[in-house]
């Protein structure tokens, strides 16, 4: 009996200290001993007090949380913190949420060890910082690689998973203040009363953490759910149906955030089915939400299988509607004009819509960046987009500034990230992918932070608590180098020189530049994008081709139009170049392509080596799990290089330079190989390589 007890005890100790990644970056000490007081009471400030009491180290130190109108200028989420670690610190804000954000700032500050004096004043760049979950009611997650959906629809509203609150806390700690619970490919059923009662429970849990709940809606809901004969936005009954639905929602969730809508895109219904415009559709919903201060996030991800270059279509569709949207409509625009490729130029809609609110949409889940197998720290990619100059109102009109209200007045400013979260114990399917959730929140709060600032902070918070200071000092430079170079490595072996969308049809994991499905939509086929032929490769979007360059403002349009000035890392996005075209390096294009793929493989190996270097400085569990992911990533990089080079060689008809690595695969075998990965599964690597 004693033995058994001992075993149970040992097991529970191991369990408590197992580094399974479930605690994310929230590893503050739990020996708090400060005195925390506040001049107000409330559910949100109570969380701030609880967090600080539990985690702020400083016996006898007073921490004071004050709600005061004096800091109104910082907006409702902003705060001021000042004081001294030794003598006492005060946080002031005009709202409870501001106090909660201040508390998390303080805990981060304690953890990252920045000295004794504190004197900061913070307010977010975007008012609405929102996660989009592509979660379905059956708990599958579209493009999700971290298990099932967190939302247990079958058990709600009665059974409540402790993960709901943990999720809210993690988001609040990085300033995320909104969540769209369900997939933009929305089932009308989400709006049934039964489901809304479940949504209410989640909203109630998220509310004290400052998080508003939103839903994606299907534009045909009046027909599909309500039984009406039409969903025409200008039809009176349709309007009344939405009005009463919205009333029901606000009865249950008085601070409901609003709707996200994917309409007339990839087969989903929308106002154009009734001869109406996107503005007609969005405004009808905006009008019914307005009395409750709800908003509509209307996606600009639209393209049709016609002769027009897919990359141009969203701009063509939305620019003529500029100025026609209500002030509670925000057009949600993916960072690039095609679809979350590892590198895209920014969408030309940024800055071009001058009288319409617009918000960036980033993809945190790695649909086109190796799922949860590859390491790709995405803050570098998002910064590339946010810092891009649109020139729309002169030099310095960056994507960040044309969306955050600095240049154009917007009633609401917002930013969205497609979540990479699921039921996996470590939340994201890969320990290092947690950094992307973290980075999205931090950039949404302050897009001026650098990718490097954010990763250093994340490393200290995520690996710091369980390790000694000395370890963190050793770990930080290696891991931060790895993370900062990781996305470029993925770009280099997946889409060198701007080659894009050559992913395998269906799952978007591996390469399939040869893919040809008779009768399939051409703009879903890799050949539509790479256009390889005996003369050369690349999509001609110059003024001699589709002229997509003309959608960018001068001088960028001219820069992109000329291959001599267009950056090499995106050159085949904008140009079809001959195989012997002389690149800026002096090499012919074919050789450059070979060298670039090869350097992608080398970069993947380098990341793998860097990871092995961190072994002495982190726990064995996370080390091993990530190490095995790097094996997969490196094998995949070789697969990309071999598959693409051997295939494109059929067109270039030139040898692969001898000083790059020999291929280890046969093209015919690669071509006949069908990767059987469904959207909802992780890539099964045995399927990939053992065939
Ligand atoms: O990239 C495509 C994805 C779809 C997704 C769509 C979108 C939710 O492959 O799975 O659907 O984008 O953003 O609407």
UniProtKB/TrEMBL annotation:
InterPro entries: A-glucoronidase_C_sf, GH, Glyco_hydro_67_C, Glyco_hydro_67_cat, Hex-like_dom2. It is an enzyme of class 3 (hydrolase). The keyword Hydrolase applies. GO terms for molecular function: alpha-glucuronidase activity; xylan alpha-1,2-glucuronosidase activity. One of its GO terms (cellular component) is extracellular region. Keywords: Glycosidase, Hydrolase. Residues 428-659 form the Glycosyl hydrolase family 67 C-terminal domain. Its EC number is 3.2.1.131. GO terms for biological process: xylan catabolic process. Signal peptide: none annotated. It holds the Pfam family Glyco_hydro_67M. Residues 115-427 form the Glycosyl hydrolase family 67 catalytic domain. PANTHER family: ALPHA-GLUCURONIDASE A. This is Extracellular xylan exo-alpha-(1->2)-glucuronosidase. It comes from termite gut metagenome.
């Amino acid at each position: 009996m004693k033995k058994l007890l001992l075993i149970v005890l040992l097991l529970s100790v191991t369990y408590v200290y197992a580094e399974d990644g479930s605690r994310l970056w929230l590893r503050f000490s739990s020996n708090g001993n400060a005195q925390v007081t506040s001049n107000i009471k409330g559910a949100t400030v109570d969380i701030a007090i609880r967090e600080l009491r539990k985690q702020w180290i400083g016996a006898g130190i007073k921490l004071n949380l004050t709600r005061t109108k004096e800091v109104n200028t910082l907006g409702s989420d902003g705060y001021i913190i000042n004081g001294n670690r030794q003598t006492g610190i005060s946080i002031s804000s005009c709202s409870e949420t501001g106090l909660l954000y201040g508390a998390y700032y303080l805990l981060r500050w304690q953890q990252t060890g920045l000295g004794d004096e504190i004197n900061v004043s913070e307010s977010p760049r975007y008012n609405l910082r929102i996660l989009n979950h592509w979660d379905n009611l059956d708990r599958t997650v579209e493009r999700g690689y971290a298990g099932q959906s967190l939302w247990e629809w079958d058990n709600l509203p009665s059974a409540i998973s402790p993960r709901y609150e943990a999720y809210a806390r993690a988001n609040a700690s990085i300033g995320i203040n909104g969540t769209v619970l369900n997939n933009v490919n929305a089932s009308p059923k989400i709006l049934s009363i039964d489901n809304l009662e479940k949504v209410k429970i989640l909203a109630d849990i998220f509310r004290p953490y400052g998080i508003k709940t939103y839903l994606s809606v299907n534009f045909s809901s009046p027909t599909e759910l309500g039984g009406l004969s039409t969903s025409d936005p200008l039809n009176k009954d349709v309007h009344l149906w939405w009005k009463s639905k919205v009333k029901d929602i606000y009865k249950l969730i008085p601070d409901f955030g609003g709707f996200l809508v994917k309409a007339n895109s990839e087969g989903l219904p929308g106002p154009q089915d009734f001869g109406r415009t996107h503005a007609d559709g969005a405004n009808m919903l905006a009008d019914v939400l307005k009395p409750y201060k709800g908003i509509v996030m209307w996606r600009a991800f639209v393209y049709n299988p016609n002769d027009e270059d897919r990359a141009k279509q969203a701009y063509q569709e939305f620019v003529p509607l500029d100025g026609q949207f209500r002030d509670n409509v925000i057009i949600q625009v993916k960072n690039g004009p095609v679809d979350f490729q590892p590198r895209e130029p920014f969408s030309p809609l940024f800055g071009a819509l001058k009288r319409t609110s617009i918000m960036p949409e980033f993809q945190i889940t790695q649909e086109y960046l190796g799922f949860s197998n590859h390491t790709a720290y995405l803050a570098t990619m998002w910064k590339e987009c946010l810092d891009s100059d649109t020139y729309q109102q002169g030099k310095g009109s960056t994507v960040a500034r044309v969306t955050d209200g600095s240049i154009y007045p917007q009633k609401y400013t917002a930013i969205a990230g497609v979540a990479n979260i699921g039921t996996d114990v470590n939340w994201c399917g890969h320990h290092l992918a947690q950094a992307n959730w973290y980075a999205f929140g931090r950039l949404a709060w302050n897009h001026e932070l650098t990718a490097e600032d954010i990763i250093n902070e994340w490393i200290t918070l995520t690996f710091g608590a369980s390790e000694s200071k000395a370890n963190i000092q050793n770990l930080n430079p290696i891991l931060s180098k790895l993370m900062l170079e990781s996305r470029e490595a993925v770009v280099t072996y997946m889409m060198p020189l701007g080659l894009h969308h050559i992913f395998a049809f269906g799952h978007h994991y591996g390469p399939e530049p040869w893919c040809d499905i008779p009768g399939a939509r051409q703009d879903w086929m890799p050949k539509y994008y790479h256009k390889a032929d005996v003369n050369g490769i690349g999509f001609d979007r110059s003024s001699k081709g589709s002229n997509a360059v003309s959608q960018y403002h001068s001088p960028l349009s001219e820069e992109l139009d000329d291959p001599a000035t267009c950056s090499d890392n995106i050159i085949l996005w904008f140009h079809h170049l001959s195989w012997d075209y002389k690149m800026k390096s002096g090499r012919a294009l074919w050789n450059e392509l070979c060298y670039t793929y090869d350097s992608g493989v080398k970069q993947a190996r380098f990341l793998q080596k860097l990871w092995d270097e961190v072994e002495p400085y982190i726990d064995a569990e996370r080390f091993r799990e990530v190490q095995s992911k790097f094996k997969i990533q490196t094998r995949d990089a070789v697969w990309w290089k071999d598959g693409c080079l051997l295939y494109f060689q059929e067109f270039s008809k030139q040898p692969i330079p001898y000083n790059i690595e020999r291929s280890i695969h046969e093209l015919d075998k690669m071509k006949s190989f069908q990767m059987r990965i469904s959207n909802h599964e992780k890539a099964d690597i045995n399927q990939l390589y053992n065939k």
